[in-house]
Amino acid sequence: VRLQAAYYLSLLNDRRAEAGIAKVRSASARKRLAGARVTEIDTVWTVGPFDDLAAGFATIHPPQRGPVDLGAIFQTVSRQLRWERYQQDPYFNFLERFGPANGTSRYLYFRIHSSRRQQILFLPGSDDGLQVWCNGKRVYDIDAVRAALPMQDDIYLTLQAGSNDVLLRV
Asked: Measured over all CA atoms, what is the biggest interatomic distance in the chain, rounded to whole angstroms?
């Protein structure tokens, strides 16, 4: 009923009601997403580790400075870093695959195709902090010391029709 009321209010084209209408539509979409089927991301591109020094997440590294270029080579003090393809087995375990990396950041990139503009519920988990960008806009940031758990964070991403770029910093 609330969604129907929002629809009919939207027909009035009254700017005063727009924020309330958007809120009702968003709440309705999020309620539907809570019961939706979970689809896993099985392949990502990753690059790192980048040394965060004492600044932690305040340190800005090249992958977050502009559009993702999977052919880019990043020069650090000790080596060159390149994007590499990484498949989950059964999940993305960076410690097992790349070894200890305290005080550093690793980036993950993947693309989601959508047939229309829509909201999705993204459920990542991370060992320590996490930052997420969707189509170049930072949409989530948690700087915490914690152990990784599956589906640890609930992040609503708004996808555009077509291709959508998602970048994570762990």
From this structure: 62
Q: Model-level pTM?
A: 0.82
The tokens describing 27, both together, are: 């709440």
Give residue 59's pLDDT: 93
Task: Give me 101's structure tokens.
Answer: 């990396």
Transcribe 11-67 into DSSP letters.
HTT-HHHHHHHHHHHHHHHHHHHHTSPP----EEEEEEEEE-GGGGGGS--GGGSSS
* Residue 68: closest CA among 49, 88, 45: 45
- Cβ atoms 169, 127 nearer than 8 A: no
How many whole angstroms separate alpha carbon 107 and alpha carbon 46?
Answer: 5
Residues in the chain: 170
- Residue 46 banded pLDDT, cuts 50, 70, 90: very high
Q: Which of 169, 64, 67 is nearest to 124 (CA)?
A: 169
Cis bond before residue 150 (omega within 30° of 0): no
